[in-house]
Amino acid sequence: MSLTLYIHPLASFCHKVLIAFYENAVDFRSETVDLMEAGSTADHLARWPVGKIPVLHDGARNRVVPETSIIIEYVQQHYPGSLPMLPRNEEQRLDARLWDRFFDLYVGVPMQKIVTDRLRPAGGNDAIGVADAHRALDTAYAMIDGQMADKTWATGDDFTIADCAATPGLFFGSMVHPFAPDQHHLRAYFERLLARPSIKRTLEEARPFFSMFPYREVMPERFANGSAFA
Protein backbone atom coordinates (compact mmCIF):
# COMPACT_ATOMS: atom_id res chain seq x y z
CA MET A 1 0.00 0.00 0.00
CA SER A 2 1.24 3.50 -0.77
CA LEU A 3 -0.82 5.55 1.70
CA THR A 4 0.37 6.21 5.25
CA LEU A 5 -1.78 8.31 7.57
CA TYR A 6 0.06 9.86 10.50
CA ILE A 7 -2.34 10.17 13.42
CA HIS A 8 -2.96 9.90 17.11
CA PRO A 9 -5.93 7.60 17.87
CA LEU A 10 -7.45 10.07 20.36
CA ALA A 11 -7.10 13.18 18.19
CA SER A 12 -10.47 14.45 17.04
CA PHE A 13 -9.37 15.75 13.65
CA CYS A 14 -7.75 12.38 12.94
CA HIS A 15 -11.12 10.76 13.57
CA LYS A 16 -12.62 12.84 10.77
CA VAL A 17 -10.22 11.39 8.20
CA LEU A 18 -10.38 7.84 9.56
CA ILE A 19 -14.17 7.85 9.23
CA ALA A 20 -13.92 8.95 5.59
CA PHE A 21 -11.32 6.26 4.89
CA TYR A 22 -13.34 3.50 6.56
CA GLU A 23 -16.47 4.53 4.66
CA ASN A 24 -14.66 3.76 1.42
CA ALA A 25 -12.40 0.91 2.56
CA VAL A 26 -9.33 2.94 1.61
CA ASP A 27 -6.18 0.81 1.56
CA PHE A 28 -3.81 2.58 3.96
CA ARG A 29 -1.72 2.05 7.04
CA SER A 30 -1.72 4.33 10.07
CA GLU A 31 1.28 5.37 12.09
CA THR A 32 0.90 6.97 15.51
CA VAL A 33 2.63 10.29 16.13
CA ASP A 34 3.57 10.78 19.78
CA LEU A 35 4.03 14.52 20.26
CA MET A 36 5.26 13.86 23.82
CA GLU A 37 8.25 11.92 22.46
CA ALA A 38 11.14 13.89 20.99
CA GLY A 39 12.01 11.50 18.18
CA SER A 40 8.45 11.07 16.98
CA THR A 41 7.93 14.83 17.12
CA ALA A 42 11.12 15.54 15.17
CA ASP A 43 10.15 13.05 12.48
CA HIS A 44 6.73 14.62 12.16
CA LEU A 45 8.06 18.18 11.99
CA ALA A 46 10.36 17.09 9.18
CA ARG A 47 7.30 15.73 7.42
CA TRP A 48 5.10 18.79 8.06
CA PRO A 49 6.72 21.70 9.94
CA VAL A 50 3.38 23.04 11.16
CA GLY A 51 3.30 19.96 13.38
CA LYS A 52 -0.43 19.25 13.16
CA ILE A 53 -2.00 15.84 12.62
CA PRO A 54 -3.27 14.07 10.64
CA VAL A 55 -0.93 14.13 7.66
CA LEU A 56 -1.09 11.74 4.71
CA HIS A 57 1.95 10.48 2.80
CA ASP A 58 1.36 8.99 -0.62
CA GLY A 59 4.44 6.98 -1.48
CA ALA A 60 3.27 6.20 -5.01
CA ARG A 61 2.97 9.88 -5.89
CA ASN A 62 5.70 11.13 -3.52
CA ARG A 63 3.25 13.59 -1.98
CA VAL A 64 2.70 14.81 1.58
CA VAL A 65 -0.88 15.95 2.10
CA PRO A 66 -1.85 17.88 5.27
CA GLU A 67 -5.21 19.23 6.49
CA THR A 68 -8.23 17.00 6.98
CA SER A 69 -10.49 18.30 4.23
CA ILE A 70 -7.64 18.30 1.71
CA ILE A 71 -6.67 14.74 2.65
CA ILE A 72 -10.23 13.52 2.11
CA GLU A 73 -10.54 15.33 -1.21
CA TYR A 74 -7.11 14.12 -2.34
CA VAL A 75 -8.00 10.49 -1.68
CA GLN A 76 -11.35 10.87 -3.42
CA GLN A 77 -9.54 12.29 -6.45
CA HIS A 78 -6.74 9.72 -6.67
CA TYR A 79 -8.14 6.65 -4.86
CA PRO A 80 -11.92 6.96 -5.23
CA GLY A 81 -14.28 4.65 -3.40
CA SER A 82 -17.96 3.89 -3.77
CA LEU A 83 -19.22 6.76 -1.57
CA PRO A 84 -18.10 10.26 -2.58
CA MET A 85 -17.35 12.32 0.48
CA LEU A 86 -17.68 15.39 -1.74
CA PRO A 87 -20.83 15.01 -3.86
CA ARG A 88 -20.52 15.24 -7.62
CA ASN A 89 -23.41 17.71 -7.88
CA GLU A 90 -22.02 21.24 -7.58
CA GLU A 91 -24.68 22.62 -5.22
CA GLN A 92 -24.55 19.57 -2.98
CA ARG A 93 -20.76 19.76 -2.96
CA LEU A 94 -20.90 23.38 -1.81
CA ASP A 95 -23.28 22.42 1.00
CA ALA A 96 -20.98 19.60 2.07
CA ARG A 97 -17.97 21.91 2.08
CA LEU A 98 -19.86 24.57 4.02
CA TRP A 99 -20.94 22.19 6.77
CA ASP A 100 -17.53 20.54 6.82
CA ARG A 101 -16.03 23.92 7.65
CA PHE A 102 -18.86 24.70 10.06
CA PHE A 103 -18.26 21.58 12.12
CA ASP A 104 -14.49 22.05 12.11
CA LEU A 105 -14.50 25.74 13.01
CA TYR A 106 -17.60 26.21 15.14
CA VAL A 107 -17.81 22.85 16.93
CA GLY A 108 -14.35 21.28 16.78
CA VAL A 109 -12.31 24.40 17.56
CA PRO A 110 -14.33 25.62 20.59
CA MET A 111 -14.56 22.05 21.89
CA GLN A 112 -10.78 21.80 21.76
CA LYS A 113 -10.42 25.16 23.48
CA ILE A 114 -12.42 23.87 26.45
CA VAL A 115 -10.57 20.55 26.56
CA THR A 116 -7.04 21.90 26.21
CA ASP A 117 -7.58 24.60 28.84
CA ARG A 118 -7.55 21.79 31.40
CA LEU A 119 -4.02 20.96 30.32
CA ARG A 120 -2.66 24.42 31.09
CA PRO A 121 -0.45 24.87 34.15
CA ALA A 122 -1.97 26.35 37.30
CA GLY A 123 -2.55 30.06 36.86
CA GLY A 124 -2.41 29.83 33.08
CA ASN A 125 -6.06 29.13 32.37
CA ASP A 126 -8.00 31.26 29.91
CA ALA A 127 -11.38 31.75 31.57
CA ILE A 128 -12.55 34.32 29.02
CA GLY A 129 -11.57 32.12 26.08
CA VAL A 130 -13.32 29.11 27.59
CA ALA A 131 -16.49 31.12 28.24
CA ASP A 132 -16.41 32.30 24.63
CA ALA A 133 -16.03 28.68 23.51
CA HIS A 134 -19.10 27.62 25.50
CA ARG A 135 -21.11 30.44 23.91
CA ALA A 136 -19.87 29.41 20.46
CA LEU A 137 -21.07 25.86 21.09
CA ASP A 138 -24.47 27.15 22.21
CA THR A 139 -24.82 28.93 18.87
CA ALA A 140 -23.51 25.98 16.85
CA TYR A 141 -25.74 23.43 18.56
CA ALA A 142 -28.82 25.56 17.94
CA MET A 143 -27.91 25.90 14.26
CA ILE A 144 -27.29 22.16 13.91
CA ASP A 145 -30.59 21.36 15.60
CA GLY A 146 -32.35 23.52 13.04
CA GLN A 147 -30.36 22.09 10.14
CA MET A 148 -31.24 18.54 11.13
CA ALA A 149 -34.99 19.12 11.47
CA ASP A 150 -35.66 17.57 8.05
CA LYS A 151 -32.43 15.75 7.22
CA THR A 152 -30.90 12.34 7.85
CA TRP A 153 -27.32 13.51 7.43
CA ALA A 154 -25.76 16.95 7.67
CA THR A 155 -26.65 18.06 4.17
CA GLY A 156 -29.41 15.66 3.17
CA ASP A 157 -29.88 11.99 2.44
CA ASP A 158 -26.22 11.15 1.76
CA PHE A 159 -23.37 10.78 4.25
CA THR A 160 -20.58 13.22 3.29
CA ILE A 161 -17.41 14.90 4.48
CA ALA A 162 -19.65 17.12 6.63
CA ASP A 163 -20.73 14.13 8.71
CA CYS A 164 -17.12 13.01 9.06
CA ALA A 165 -16.34 16.47 10.45
CA ALA A 166 -19.41 16.50 12.69
CA THR A 167 -18.63 13.30 14.54
CA PRO A 168 -15.52 14.09 16.61
CA GLY A 169 -16.64 17.59 17.55
CA LEU A 170 -20.04 16.38 18.69
CA PHE A 171 -18.63 13.29 20.39
CA PHE A 172 -16.24 15.19 22.65
CA GLY A 173 -18.42 18.30 22.67
CA SER A 174 -21.34 16.35 24.09
CA MET A 175 -19.23 15.76 27.19
CA VAL A 176 -17.69 19.19 27.75
CA HIS A 177 -20.79 21.15 26.69
CA PRO A 178 -23.87 18.87 26.70
CA PHE A 179 -26.68 19.29 24.20
CA ALA A 180 -29.77 21.09 25.48
CA PRO A 181 -32.65 18.79 26.50
CA ASP A 182 -34.92 20.24 23.82
CA GLN A 183 -32.41 19.85 20.95
CA HIS A 184 -34.12 16.70 19.75
CA HIS A 185 -32.93 16.88 16.13
CA LEU A 186 -29.31 17.30 17.18
CA ARG A 187 -29.60 14.44 19.66
CA ALA A 188 -31.16 12.13 17.07
CA TYR A 189 -28.48 13.05 14.53
CA PHE A 190 -25.74 12.27 17.05
CA GLU A 191 -27.23 8.84 17.69
CA ARG A 192 -27.36 8.14 13.94
CA LEU A 193 -23.69 9.05 13.72
CA LEU A 194 -22.83 6.69 16.58
CA ALA A 195 -24.65 3.86 14.80
CA ARG A 196 -22.56 4.23 11.63
CA PRO A 197 -20.07 1.31 11.27
CA SER A 198 -17.18 3.56 10.23
CA ILE A 199 -17.74 5.69 13.32
CA LYS A 200 -18.09 2.72 15.66
CA ARG A 201 -14.76 1.43 14.38
CA THR A 202 -13.00 4.77 14.75
CA LEU A 203 -14.21 5.34 18.30
CA GLU A 204 -13.54 1.76 19.38
CA GLU A 205 -9.95 2.16 18.16
CA ALA A 206 -9.71 5.35 20.21
CA ARG A 207 -11.18 3.78 23.36
CA PRO A 208 -7.88 2.46 24.81
CA PHE A 209 -6.75 6.09 24.93
CA PHE A 210 -9.86 7.54 26.58
CA SER A 211 -8.03 7.65 29.91
CA MET A 212 -5.98 10.50 28.42
CA PHE A 213 -9.08 12.62 27.78
CA PRO A 214 -8.97 15.57 30.22
CA TYR A 215 -12.70 15.31 30.93
CA ARG A 216 -12.67 11.56 31.42
CA GLU A 217 -14.76 11.87 34.61
CA VAL A 218 -17.81 13.03 32.63
CA MET A 219 -17.54 10.44 29.87
CA PRO A 220 -20.74 8.35 29.66
CA GLU A 221 -20.26 4.74 30.64
CA ARG A 222 -21.49 3.53 27.25
CA PHE A 223 -18.48 5.27 25.69
CA ALA A 224 -16.00 4.22 28.36
CA ASN A 225 -16.97 0.53 28.23
CA GLY A 226 -17.43 0.47 24.46
CA SER A 227 -21.05 -0.69 24.48
CA ALA A 228 -21.97 2.27 22.25
CA PHE A 229 -19.56 0.99 19.61
CA ALA A 230 -20.43 -2.71 19.69
Automatic annotation (TrEMBL):
<dbReference type="InterPro" id="IPR036282">
    <property type="entry name" value="Glutathione-S-Trfase_C_sf"/>
</dbReference>
<feature type="domain" description="GST N-terminal">
    <location>
        <begin position="1"/>
        <end position="83"/>
    </location>
</feature>
<keyword id="KW-0808">Transferase</keyword>
<dbReference type="InterPro" id="IPR004046">
    <property type="entry name" value="GST_C"/>
</dbReference>
<dbReference type="InterPro" id="IPR040079">
    <property type="entry name" value="Glutathione_S-Trfase"/>
</dbReference>
<feature type="domain" description="GST C-terminal">
    <location>
        <begin position="89"/>
        <end position="218"/>
    </location>
</feature>
<dbReference type="InterPro" id="IPR036249">
    <property type="entry name" value="Thioredoxin-like_sf"/>
</dbReference>
<protein>
    <submittedName>
        <fullName>Glutathione S-transferase</fullName>
    </submittedName>
</protein>
<dbReference type="Pfam" id="PF13417">
    <property type="entry name" value="GST_N_3"/>
</dbReference>
<dbReference type="Pfam" id="PF00043">
    <property type="entry name" value="GST_C"/>
</dbReference>
<dbReference type="InterPro" id="IPR004045">
    <property type="entry name" value="Glutathione_S-Trfase_N"/>
</dbReference>
<dbReference type="InterPro" id="IPR010987">
    <property type="entry name" value="Glutathione-S-Trfase_C-like"/>
</dbReference>
<dbReference type="GO" id="GO:0016740">
    <property type="term" value="F:transferase activity"/>
</dbReference>
